[in-house]
Amino acid sequence: MAKIYNFCTLFDANYLPRALVMYHSLEQSGENFRLYVVCFDKLTYQLLTKLRFANLIAIPLGDFESPQLLAVKAQRSAGEYCWTCTPHVIRYVLDVYQLSEVTYLDADLCFYAKPSILLEEFEQSGASVLITDHRYTPRYDKSAQYGIYCVQFMTFKADGRGLTALQWWQDRCVEWCYARAEEGKFGDQKYLDDWPQRFKGVHVLEHIGGGVAPWNIQQYKLNCNYGQLYIGEKQLVFFHFHAYKYYLNGIHSFSANYLLDSEVVDWLYRPYASALILAYVEIREIEPDFVCGYSSRSALWLELARYLKRRYKGVLNEYQIG
After folding, report:
1. Buried b (16+ CB within 10 A) or exposed e, 133-151
2. Are 177 and 77 in contact (CB under 8 A)?
3. N or C: fewer beta carbons within 10 Å in the chain?
4. CA angle in degrees (0–180, nearest 5) for 273-145-315
5. Considering only CA atoms, which of 228, 266, 274 is closest in space to residue 111?
6. Number of Cβ atoms within 10 Å of the Cβ of 310
């Protein structure tokens, strides 16, 4: 029997369209998987229940939240609370569903090959925890502020080494998890900086096809060979569509700060924009008035200033789609 790979994530209705793109990309990769989703609002849970995806298990927020988390919820913004909950979601899924391991995914990933390509490297390493490096392009290096590693694709085994690291992370995020750099911390992410030294059994992903993102794509040559995307000679496994925005007028802002060449736009961003549009169509078949997830435009003078700044930097990256 083929191995089933277990993944987990969390999101609210604003990220539901992106999450549907991720889910369908996992299906299209041919992977044998289950995706456990902690739904951060009732609408998300209701819609996922109605969509009845074969490989998705929707979890209501009330089933997940612990007294420990509820005690700090009012002290944090919605985004900060999601970050606080990330390690707790991983632990909840491991414990409740009695899994031997699970991989956390950010909801704005999109897969272009089976993630088992990366997880086989992890298995061969003999480690209990998998983390991914930001691998910043030097001009965009924010590791001092945001961390060496990215909370985007992380695997934990339910063994002594894996649970020790995970519990430490859970405790730290309850203590402090805010969207600011402070005393060597930032959100849930900068806590990972010393994990290869702090904990035994931590493997840093080596395959460059995992963790490709707008902050590092400038280092690589994106190629397409018989419909399969490659980063150099390695298959592109997933891309992280960080800072992607889309507006009610049909404008999609691919990246506010990063230079993207034409191949990246044509082979990654334009298909992703089309997939998002289809996700909205899919959602509106059961919820016709669904408009969550769109970004709001700033005041006109701020828009003009932003446009001039981006034009100067050569990173306009805004397109009318659909």
Report:
1. bbbbbeebeebeebbbbbb
2. no
3. N
4. 35
5. 228
6. 17
The token pair that represents 243 in the structure block: 């800072």
Alpha-carbon distances, residue 210 vs 6, 213, 230 (angstroms): 17, 9, 11
Per DSSP, helices labelled H in the chain are 16-29, 42-51, 61-64, 67-73, 78-96, 116-125, 143-146, 160-175, 195-198, 262-264, 270-284, 300-313
The CA distance from 257 to 204, in Å, is: 26
Q: What are the residues facing 154 on neighbouring strands?
A: 104
Identify the three-state secondary structure at position 215.
Answer: coil
Number of residues that make up the chain:
322
Residue scoring higher pLDDT (232 or 60): 60
* 230-239, 269-278, 292-301: least confidently modelled range: 292-301
Which residues lie closer than 8 Å to 178 by C-beta, 6 or more apart? 76, 80, 185, 187
Amino acid identity at 311 = R
- Contact present, 57 and 296 (Cβ < 8 Å): no
Of 271, 258, 259, 257, the C-alpha closest to 224 is 271
Q: What is the average per-residue pLDDT within 114-132? A: 98
Residue ranges covered by each domain of the chain: 5-249+261-298
Query: Sheet holding 251-253: strands in order across?
Result: 245-246, 251-253, 318-320
Q: pTM of this prediction? A: 0.94
* Contact in structure between 104 and 90 (CB atoms under 8 Å): yes
- Could you tell me the CA-to-CA distances from 62 to 44, 55, 70, 77, 213 in Å, in that order? 13, 22, 10, 18, 33
Q: Which DSSP symbol is given to 2? A: P
Count other C-beta atoms under 10 Å from residue 298's C-beta: 11
- Sequence letter at residue 45: Y
β pairing state of 245-246 and 251-253: antiparallel
Enumerate the β-bridge partners of residue 228: 225
What are the φ/ψ torsions at residue 94 (nearest 5 degrees)?
A: -60, -45
